[in-house]
Amino acid sequence: MLQKLSALNKDVQQYMLVTFNYWNFTLTDGALRMLVVLHFHQLGYSPLQIASLFLFYEFFGVVTNLIGGWLGAHLGLNKTMNIGLAMQIAALIMLAVPSEFLTVIWVMLAQALSGIAKDLNKMSAKSAIKTLVPPDQEGVLYKWIAVLTGSKNALKGCGFFLGGVLLAVIGFQGAVLAMAAILTAVLTLSLLLLGKDIGKAKNKVKFSQIFSKSRPINILSAARMFLFGARDIWFVVALPLYLGSVFGWAHSWVGGFLAVWVIAYGFVQSLAPKITGKSAAVPPDGKSAMNLTALSAVITVFIALAVQYSWLPELSIIAGLLIFGALFALTSSLHSYLIVSYARGDGVSLDVGFYYMANAMGRLIGTILSGWLYQSYGMAACLWFSCAFLAAAALISTALPRHQQI
Predict the structure, then answer these.
(1) CA distance 265 to 328
(2) Closest among 124, 145, 141 to 133, alpha carbons compared
(3) What is the mean pLDDT of residues 9-31?
(4) 6 exposed, middle or buried (CB, 10 Å; 0-12, 13-18, 19+)?
């Protein structure tokens, strides 16, 4: 096995190491989210209080992506990836204190550290691929991005299961310490084998360059913000509460269903290059992103109508969520390819970081609206706001670049 790995192209070896780092981080990140939800539910926290624990996680994702891109270009993506791993280890150790010390502020600070770590790791992984794929091989870039993005979400779903199992078997403190030990081993391997100065800009990078001056990237970033806001408006807080309070699902059923959904979502993302029906030589463009977003909006309208008028709401939610998930997975995977494709070769992390800043901003807005809208107006209102956000994303996407017609 080691001989086969050593015989591979150096760029492929580096891609595998970057992916391995990202996989391990994502698995523990998903497990940690489920551990926090279940453990603090056991401690008597309400669902909305639990959701508030993640606000710093999302807020610092906005800041990290904005600054992290500059750090990646300035220091190199190997360093930002390793810093992310180290910060996640620190966040896990912070949560290993006895339960009486797990105050809301302490947990929010640990989640803030974890959010910074997650976005440093994600930005580094996706930016690194741009530097490892020749500029004339867009089809290969699309496939590599789709595999990385899809596998990440599938593993995040697996992490939900892992978090529940670890909590039952070794408890909360034991679980976070076990994950910290695993990431320490991954970090050690990364420090030894990951290439130096991956993605480091050849020219001096000014801090003012964190804001993108590229029109396609600004348009795609705006569309991304509304796209992920649309998902999280009804998915983060409203959907789990709705499934439990209205349909009477047990917490284990809610967690299991959402975990399976995320795994399936990731699987569809990894198959995006095949599902879109485009050849490797001519991958999808901005028009494809617009069409997928518009179709997602139409599906969400039907779900909103079914919930508002109580027309088989349980079946409509489940079936609609599956269709929405498939379309959203394709759109998200395509977006992930487009941002790397649009990004500059020198200092790629600046463009990718700015884009994922918009992504994090959308998630933050969606998380806040999800709790407020559901508590004040119910599930139907969340879905209608999601429709409006998707319509805005589709409208913005009309300005994305398209392939020249021959």
Answers:
(1) 8
(2) 141
(3) 78
(4) exposed
Asked if the model's pLDDT at residue 104 lies above 90, the reply is: no
**pLDDT tens-place string over residues 178-187:** 999 999 999 9
Helices (H), 309-378: 313-342, 348-377
The pTM score is 0.75
Task: Give the pair of three-digit tokens for residue 305.
Answer: 């109508």
Neighbour-count burial for 180-211, b at 16+ CB within 10 Å, e otherwise:
beebeebbeebeeebbeebbbbeeebeeebbe
Angstrom distances, CA of residue 27 to CA of 22, 108, 265: 9, 20, 15
- Radius of gyration in angstroms for the set of CA atoms belonging to the chain, rounded to a whole number: 20
**Average pLDDT of the residues of the chain:** 80
| pLDDT value of residue 9 | 59
Q: How far is CA 241 from CA 164, 204, 265, 383, in A?
A: 18, 49, 21, 14
| 386 touches 233 (CB < 8 A) | yes
Largest CA distance in the chain: 67
Looking at residue 257, its amino acid is F
Q: Which DSSP symbol is given to 195? A: P
Q: Is the pLDDT of residue 115 over 80?
A: yes
Identity of residue 263: I
Angle between helices 10-42 and 251-270 (to 10 degrees): 160
Q: Give the CATH number of domain 9-200+210-397.
A: 1.20.1250.20
Please check whether residue 34 is in contact with residue 255, taking contact to mean a CB–CB distance below 8 angstroms: yes
Q: What token pair was written down for 348? A: 């790629």
Q: What are the residue boundaries of the structural domains of the chain, listed by start? A: 9-200+210-397
Q: How many angstroms separate the CA atoms of 213 and 217, rounded?
A: 8
Nearest by Cα to 132 from 16, 21, 217 = 16
Beta strands in 58-167 (DSSP E): none
pLDDT the model gives residue 2? 42
> CA 210, 214, 220, 223: dihedral to nearest 10 degrees?
80
Type of residue numbered 379: M
Burial (CB count within 10 angstroms: exposed 0-12, middle 13-18, buried 19+), residue 119: buried
pLDDT classification of 272: cutoffs 50, 70, 90: confident
Q: Does residue 399 carry a pLDDT above 70?
A: yes
